[in-house]
Amino acid sequence: MKSFNLNPKKSLQGQMFLNFMIPFAIIGLALFIFVKSITGYIIDEHVLPEFDQILEMNGENLSAFTDENVVNQVIAGEGGESQLTTFLDEYAKGKEGLEYVYVLTRQNGKDYIVGMNGSSDAMVESPFTDDQARAFEEKKSVLTSIYTDKWGSHKSYFVPVDGSDAIIGVDMSTQFIDDLITTINLFLIGFVVMAILIGGVIAYLFGRNMNKHIQKLVHSMDKMASGDLTEEITTSRQDEIGTLSNKFEHMRGNLIRMIESVKTNADAIDATSVDLVTGFSEMTEASEQIATGTMEEARASESRSQHIERISAGTTSMSDEVKALTEQTGLIDQFTQSTSQRAKEGSDQIVRITDQITRIQKNSQISHERLMTLENKIVAINRDIDLIKDISDQTNLLSLNASIEAARAGEAGKGFAVVAEEVQNLARLTDSNVKTINQAIQEINQQTAEMMDANKEVNSDIEDGVNLVATSGELFETIFHGVQGLSDEVRKMVSSMDTVQSNTKDSIESIHEIAAISEEGVATLQEIASSSEQQNTTVRTLQTKNSELKTMADSLKEEVQRFKL
């Protein structure tokens, strides 16, 4: 019996098994999560609130019934221990789920259990928990959360005792909640496991039933692959597997007909290939003769084309030289035109310079005349200054005489003496100024004389410049006419070079056309030769392929013999 393969890549049965198992597992897991969440909701929203209500009610009742005087006596060490223990035992008796009831206090910084049901000990030191300390310090009721210790899970409620420095604690077991959760979890796990097992069994049985028919079909395909087409593929199924079996049976019939047809065609190919070999041999000989003649003509045409190319290259080189010469001539024409323009501009500039120098000469003459006038004015000023000097000398002499006469007059002439002295001072000052002016005028006379001499030299140089400019103007006029004549000759030469270049260009185009036609002829002959050679190669290839075809036909007949029809 064949083993069960769970690999989905190698077994269809394994794929079907996994396809059944995965949905069952997902549904079971989803149900597990759903029921667990519902259980948690019920416990949190219904069970625990009722439990807390019962716990708080027990705590409040215990606080109300507790005698604070007895508690205070026990704390003070004045007796009452047995009375408190009896009260706590009686209260805890008969109450389901109630584990411990006790009284707690803190004295001198230490925590104590004042009394507890089931224990005769009193004032036993025991540190407070956080919830106990909060209830004692804040004097308010405190409900703890569920906590777990070595005795199980519990929940506590602490409430202050009125009239006493103590609190009452009530502990109730929550083990039934843990037991309920455990029971539900076990039930869910069992349900999921059972669902997976049931799904696995169904998947295995269903897959084995389907795999049996597929294995039968695979067995038939193995025989067909080995060449045995005699076994008929039958099935009674009406589903997709039945359709697949019918299609394979149809394919078996088609294979039988195809193999019989191949066998018949292979015999026909074998007979035809002999005739093709003879025809290909004759075609090969004719193609070789055509290729030989065409190659000889192509070589001759290629030689002619090479000569034409050399002529074309020489003509092209000559055209390039003519073009370069034309460009140089054009540059010369441009240069002569530019030179002519510059000569004309120079001639015009000489005319303007001549006019300017003439105006300068006239202005220089006017300056000379004005200097002569200035010199005459300065001579007149010298005469006036000499007259002023004589008047100053006479005034000085008169003031001296007046001073002498005033001295002779004594006291009566003192005022006149003062005036005479002032006049004498004024005469001296006038004489001093006249000397200064006379000295300045002498310097002006000297500078004016030097300017007159320089003006004479400038007039002489200007006259020489006018003569030189006139001569230069005549030379520029001669150069302008000469350059203009050269420009006309260069234009004629440029026109002739353009005509030569145009004729050379036409010749080159004609030679290029001849060369192109020759090259096209060579290319055509080469293409014919290449086509002939290619045809010859094709014929040889066909001969080879025909031989291979005959070999394949023989091999095909051998292969067909393997099948049992």
UniProtKB/TrEMBL annotation:
Keyword Cytoplasm annotated: no
Domain HAMP: 208-260
Membrane-spanning ranges: 20-43, 180-206
SUPFAM superfamilies the UniProt entry points to: Methyl-accepting chemotaxis protein (MCP) signaling domain
Transit peptide listed as a keyword: no
Major localization class: membrane
Entry's Gene Ontology BP terms: signal transduction
Gene Ontology, cellular component aspect: plasma membrane
Pfam family, one: HAMP
Location of the Methyl-accepting transducer domain: 279-536
Localization per Swiss-Prot or TrEMBL: Cell membrane
Top-rank taxon, per record: Bacteria
The entry's keywords: Cell membrane, Membrane, Transducer, Transmembrane, Transmembrane helix
Homology family: Belongs to the methyl-accepting chemotaxis (MCP) protein family.
Name under which the protein is recorded: Methyl-accepting chemotaxis protein
Species of origin: Rossellomorea marisflavi
